[in-house]
Design a protein that fits this description.
338 residues, alpha+beta, 14-stranded mixed beta sheet, 9 helices, 26% helix, globular
């Protein structure tokens, strides 16, 4: 794709010399810095290469960017070329001028030539209406189920509460303390895990979770803190979990990014054992995504309450129409790099 001009806005693919401009825009839009190490990890992966589409004003300032990561999708046992749209950003001074729409059109024009069939994304309430106007479909709304595991961290300095909350946490810690599984914390995923995932998810449509992909996402990511758990019974893998640990001075929150459970296992029981393990290893709160494809029996033991989220799971058909009855496996890990 060459340079495309639209009024005073110029659209083109990212070049290495644009990094400083990208950092400036990222900070302005997302209110946080992006390091060169993190940028290279996220957008320079050999297995999931990125195409970065940029918009510049007449002074050469980057005013918008849209990133497409190539990714494989499994559907009915076959691998489909797919892509994921991430990190959409438009300078607040340039919104309402059709720049976001033009970046999407350019992105789709490029990836059509790469034989990509579907683009997936997880837009928030602000960006989804613009996507709808250019043909994106909502597949599922997303909500979050939240469970408090330990109560003392929520009132560490309130007189009269510390002692009773400590007692309550002690009682909770003894629940489900015995386990029918051997639980191992993993460093990396291997081909046995890959085989287990493909077998378990064979009837669902999902982003292809190869060992290479999972290790890129949950092992190679800079400055990350993921707990990767393997549940075994009779020396066979029965479940795999990835939990992102987010800690501050008050409490530690775990977000379940991956939860893949053997079809013959009682998912509620497996989750109860997971909760017990996380409580013993000093997690205070746990969160999990819930979509219209979620099995209620799976998440019932997680959610003390449900919080509506502004996120949606949406798809753009590029080269192949989707089946109407698709059942997707969607987890928070799908958007962890978004």
């Amino acid at each position: 794709m060459g340079v495309v001009s639209n009024s005073d806005i110029i659209y083109r693919l990212y070049k290495d010399s644009d990094f400083t401009e990208y950092v400036k825009l990222y900070l302005k839009v997302f209110k946080k810095n992006i390091s060169k190490q993190y940028f290279d990890w996220k957008f320079r992966s050999e297995s999931n290469p990125a195409y970065i589409f940029c918009a510049f004003n007449s002074e050469g300032d980057m005013v918008a960017a849209r990133v497409i990561l190539l990714t494989d999708i499994m559907c009915n046992g076959e691998t489909i070329k797919g892509a994921q749209s991430v990190d959409s950003m438009v300078d607040s001074d340039y919104r309402g001028r059709g720049i976001y729409k033009n970046l999407n059109i350019l992105a789709i024009d490029v990836i059509e030539k790469l034989d990509v069939k579907w683009i997936i994304t997880f837009p928030n309430g602000n960006s989804f209406p613009a996507l709808q106007k250019i043909g994106w479909e909502e597949v599922s709304p997303i909500s979050i189920k939240i469970k408090v595991l330990r109560y003392k961290p929520f009132a560490p300095n309130i007189p009269g509460l510390t002692w009773p909350l400590s007692i309550l946490d002690g009682i909770l810690a003894k629940r489900n303390n015995s386990t029918k599984f051997s639980i191992t914390e993993l460093d990396i995923f291997n081909k046995h895990h890959e085989s287990f995932i493909f077998s378990t998810l064979r009837h669902k449509t999902h982003q292809k979770r190869s060992a290479e992909y999972l290790n890129w996402k949950y092992h190679e990511k800079p400055n990350s803190d993921y707990v990767k758990l393997e549940f075994r019974k009779d020396n066979k893998i029965m479940a795999l979990f990835v939990i992102r640990r987010d800690a501050n001075a008050q409490r530690t929150t775990g977000t379940i990014l991956e939860s893949i459970i053997h079809e013959n296992e009682n998912k509620k029981v497996v989750f109860q054992h997971l909760i017990s393990y996380l409580r013993r290893t000093h997690f205070d709160v746990v969160k999990v995504w819930e979509t219209k494809f979620s099995n209620d029996n799976t998440t019932n033991s997680i959610g003390s309450f449900r919080r509506k989220n502004a996120l949606r799971f949406a798809i753009k058909n590029v080269g192949e129409k989707r089946a109407e009855n698709e059942v997707w496996f969607i987890s928070a890990g799908d958007a962890d790099t978004a």
